[in-house]
Amino acid sequence: MLMKWIKCQVNEENKRSFSKAQERWGELRHCSGFMGQIGGWNRNHPYEAGILSVWKDLCSYQSFMQHQHDEIIGKSDQGSTYTNISVDIYESISNIGTTDITYFLNKGILLRVADCSVEKDNHARFEQVLKGVGNRGMLTGAFCKRQNGRYLAASLWDNEDSHQRYADKELPALINGSGMKGSTQRISVSLIELHPKWAVI
């Protein structure tokens, strides 16, 4: 399974236009290998949009990029609504909990995405720790990786209190107990308030 993590910087005057354009990605449902897409505005950076797209495999995603992507974005004119975009592709390595994240894409209100860079010597240990994490109050989630020690932890939440408890208490305890504190060279956390009309399920 493949995760596509997209971040767009949007000026205040273009937020409405960007949102309307994002609602027009329903054609994704007809693309082979597409498994779902959700997104919204970053609570910590209100002019940043975050979108998580899930694909069956790299072959399906590459076929979409080659044959359908440009036509869809051209129809919506979304390219004119943001000032900057970053796109990263990750390969899923494990679920958080026992259920695949695609089963819950239409049930969450918050999406937490942690993008981590891990020192080379700690890759194996870091992955071992990730695979042992339970759901800890979240609906579900997924751990993903790409080259050069980049990891993505995406989790879905259906209430504010559970997420806040995780962020304040459970996550720090997990990091301290894992012996991995200090192994990450960089970590960037996005907390996305999911917009129901952006979802393509």
Can you walk me through this structure?
- The protein has 201 residues and is α+β, with helices and mostly antiparallel strands.
- It has one domain: Alpha-Beta Plaits (2-Layer Sandwich).
- 27% of the residues lie in helices and 38% in strands.
- It has an eight-stranded antiparallel beta barrel with strand order 1-3-2-8-5-7-6-4.
- The longest helix has 19 residues, at 160-178.
- The protein starts with a strand and ends in a 7-residue tail after the last strand.
- The mean pLDDT is 90.
Give the strand line-up of the largest sheet.
1-3-2-8-5-7-6-4
Give the termini separation: 16 Å
User: Which class do the helix and strand fractions yield?
Assistant: alpha+beta
User: What percent of residues are in strands?
Assistant: 35-45%
As for the CATH topology, it is: Alpha-Beta Plaits
Summarize the topology:
Blueprint (H helix, E strand, L loop, with lengths): L1 E8 L5 H8 L11 E9 L2 E11 L2 H10 L1 H8 L7 E13 L13 E9 L4 H9 L8 E7 L3 E8 L2 H19 L5 E11 L7
Antiparallel strand pairs: 1-3, 1-4, 2-3, 2-8, 4-6, 5-7, 5-8, 6-7
